[in-house]
């Protein structure tokens, strides 16, 4: 009999359903219900420890792989990717603060808090990360650029090999422990939400949030293709049609990295030269988070509104600007966007290790596929723009 292999999204949905059911079993003593809550808490601590290492493992090698003399291309692509991410985050904030209050009111906010306090884990193990996320990002960029420069001098193989093998170790950890453990993490979180009585109120809000988020992602991706098409004098509707296989692949794999081969073929159909597409597509798979930042910004804004916390523009603008940098390693694993953003949740008054932090992780993971699909789709719009700029300005000047 052939064994049925379930995808990650299916496993997460099953974990949510089972968690809701388990948390409603009133006849069970609290310490039994606390077991999955404890497992989820421990898993969260390990995730926090691994995130900075994940950033170093993926970003150093990604930058070090850049070819010699690619400084201008790196700068241009990075600026476009960050600008795209920043604009998407700002638009998501304005959409959220204007639309979400239509279905998030004071009475619903009280229902979301729950009838009783959430369960605490039976025990916890303090696992402090070796580096914070900001330090890991700065370290990765400095070493990646320097190793790329050394390779141009015919040196640096030892350092490059070290970080390449380090990235393989991180990938092994992600594939063998983190990704398989995500359903158990989700299960524990939903057990707690179900126990407090807040889960149904939360779900009644967030299906509407996600409908708006996915619609906004599609609109923004289409808009960026229109901008790229107008600048490069290419048909944006043809490019959007070409992107469909990449979008569907990203939904299925939930990984920007796994979608790179398909995205390269899309870029080829869009007329992007081999030199540019082989440079921009893998790089943007790491640094361009259009879809992810829309999701994180929207979910954070929704949670702040639910719990009657401030959502003023000055606070959120700083948070979104930092997210554009902090989420660089997000495509390394499913849910990487929210994991990378967690250390900066204190900027908006959310405790990343508390109930709200776990709630955000849980909600983000359930729709991560669509954010990833928007990320990689936007990569091809950037590739079209970079290709035009390179041949129209950079190459001509160098000749």
UniProtKB/TrEMBL annotation:
Gene3D superfamilies: Sodium:dicarboxylate symporter (1.10.3860.10). It is a multi-pass membrane protein. GO terms for molecular function: neutral L-amino acid:sodium symporter activity. The chain crosses the membrane at residues 12-33, 39-61, 73-96, 133-152, 173-193, 205-232, 279-307, 313-330. The keyword Kinase does not apply. GO terms for cellular component: plasma membrane. GO terms for biological process: serine transport. Signal peptide: none annotated. Keywords: Membrane, Transmembrane, Transmembrane helix, Transport. SUPFAM superfamilies: Proton glutamate symport protein. It is found in: Membrane. PANTHER family: PROTON/GLUTAMATE-ASPARTATE SYMPORTER, SERINE_THREONINE TRANSPORTER SSTT. This is Sodium:dicarboxylate symporter. It comes from Carnobacterium inhibens subsp. gilichinskyi.
